[in-house]
Amino acid sequence: MQEDKGALPPKETFSEWYNDILWQAEIMDVRYPVKGGVYVWYPHGFAMRKATYAILRELLDKDHDETLFPMLIPENEFMKEAEHIKGFEEEVYWVTHGGGTSELDVPLALRPTSETAIYPPMYALWVRSHADLPIKLYQIVNTFRYETKHTRPLIRLREITSFKEAHTVHATWEEAEAQVNDAVDLYRTFYDRLCVPVIVSRRPEWDKFPGADYTLATDVVMPDGKTLQVGTAHHLGDHFSRTFDITYEDAQGEQQLAYQTCYGISERCIAALISTHGDDKGLVLPPAVAPVQIAIVPIIIKKREEEVRAAAEALETELKEAGYRVKTDFRSLRPGAKYYHWEMRGGVPLRIEIGPRDIDNGVVMTVTRLGEKQTVARDALLPGIQAVMDAFTETLKERAEQKVQEQIVPASSLDEAREAAGKGVAVIPWCGCKECATAIETAIDVSVLGTDVQSKYVADTEGTCIICGKPARPAIIARTY
Ligand code: 5CA
Ligand code: ZN
Asked: Would you give the DSSP letter of residue 122?
């Protein structure tokens, strides 16, 4: 995998930069021979995924159980829920044959998401009494959607390889509502750990998940100003429980319909991570998810080679024992070539240089991925390194927030909205009706993302709709991925 990959285009040309960095930093290989939307994780990309999904698992495992359902869904189960089907039927891959010629009795869908794999066959059996509730399960699986829009690695896939879907069952509508809010909080915490700012909003009626009462969505503003939906949480009401007969016996011995929610995240979170933090030199990663957190570069001079090697090894041992992911670069390259390697490929948050002079002075030199240098006393190594790491995480967070702050702009006319949406997200007063949304969407080629915006970047003001003049609340509009 050590191919010479040439120079990275500047991040200003975001589309080219994005495609190139996936390849140069060895995240995804797009040369897999299935047309569109099916790609391969390089081991380095997969290590990022592993660290990122470890955070997601840690958060979910507090009060969910992990599970694994089949990928194949029988056609008859899949077809039971009309609204849900209508939302997905154009996107389903079907398995119709087994072996050479025999046609399957019942065609099998490759799950595009798992409601119909989980609810009718299993939840209908598992939910019996109020004592069984709530049920909160999740799985991290691959799902398949025959997307017809332009596919893009990590962003719009036909095989989504890292689909985290949670499915919960509750006794009441209100408990399900509370669960949707918890899910959104969990996503907020998750993205905060990735230092990626997000905007939460309520999707318009016509853009909610097929079969949901309502949908809350989490969006990221990408460097080019387009937004990427990086997580959704759906209140399913009793929509599925009615169809699939998911009922429980309450404390009085009466049969009641259950209420459900589901919420999902895909590897779009990795796309957001890369895009938010990366720069002209390559990958930049928060320590929490960097496959290599510290690269030790020994500055070797002939006379004291043995001594420097030993010092670097001791450093590595101590840092590894403290739990850091560390690599020492003993390759016989010039230090400059090593720096370049760790900047581009690794997005390594911290480089530690150690040479004869540092040994003499009882220090190590730390350089963050953004070039901030600081010496750390060798005899107080661990607290010193932790402080540098924490400060770096804070810097990434602030840098990302500042950028997003600039990308979200209030607008009070169509012209202003057009200009704002050209650079990012426009916040406009909108009455909430479909006609006005359509008027906005066609006039300036954007999507109305949502209302009830939960974001510190968007003030909850009252106003009048920029189309019809009726009383309005803020809505966010943007060009979307
Ligand atoms: N069953 C529900 C919740 S698990 C569901 O499928 N919701 S979803 O359709 O909104 O998908 C959840 C998230 O997966 C989306 O918010 C989006 O971030 C991501 N996603 C959806 N389609 C794709 C795709 N084709 N490629 C990559 N990510 C996708
Ligand atoms: Zn209006």
From this structure: I
Q: What are phi and psi of 375, to 5 degrees?
A: -90, 145
Could you read off the pLDDT of 287-316 as tens digits, one per residue? Answer: 999 999 999 999 988 999 999 999 999 999
> In the chain, where does the domain assigned CATH 3.40.50.800 lie?
294-391
Please tell us whether the domain made up of 294-391 is placed in CATH 3.40.50.800: yes
Ligand 1 mean position, distance from CA 265 (Å): 6
Structure-block tokens of residue 77? 């189960």
CB 462 within 8 A of CB 471: yes
Task: Calculate how far, in angstroms, residue 242's C-alpha sits from the geometric centre of ligand 2.
Answer: 35
CATH numeric code, 14-277: 3.30.930.10
Ligand 1 near 264 CB (within 6 A)? yes
Q: Which residues pair with 463 in a beta bridge?
A: 472
* CA 479 to centroid of ligand 2, rounded, Å: 20
pLDDT at 211 over 60: yes
Give the CB-side neighbour count of residue 284, counting CA atoms within 13 A: 21
**Centre of ligand 1 from the C-alpha of residue 164, in Å:** 9
Ligand 1 pocket member 263 (CB < 6 A): yes
CA–CA distance from 127 to each of 134, 211, 263, 443 (Å)?
A: 9, 20, 20, 49
344 — pLDDT class (breaks 50, 70, 90): confident
Residues 155-182: pLDDT tens digits? 999 999 999 999 999 999 999 999 999 9
The boundaries of every CATH 3.30.930.10 domain in the chain are 14-277
Domain spanning 408-478: CATH superfamily: C-terminal domain of ProRS (3.30.110.30)
Residue 25 tokens read as: 């930093």
The answer, yes or no, to whether residue 346 has pLDDT greater than 80, is no
Point out the ligand nearest to the CA of residue 472: 2
Q: Is 147 in the pocket of ligand 1 (CB under 6 A)?
A: yes
Query: Considering only CA atoms, which of 399, 385, 309, 300 is closest in space to residue 349?
Result: 385
Report how far ligand 1's centroid is from the alpha carbon of 328 (Å).
39
Cα–Cα distance, 246 to 314 (Å, whole number)? 60
pLDDT per residue as tens digits for the range 422-474 = 999 999 999 999 999 999 999 999 999 999 999 989 888 889 999 999 999 99
Closest residue to atom 28 of ligand 1, CA basis: 266
201 lines ligand 1 (CB under 6 A): no
Q: Which part of the chain is CATH 3.30.110.30?
A: 408-478
Model pTM? 0.96
Indicate if ligand 1 lies below 6 Å from the C-beta of 17: no
Ligand 1: residue of 229, 269, 273, 447 to mutate (most ligand atoms within 8 A of CB) is 229
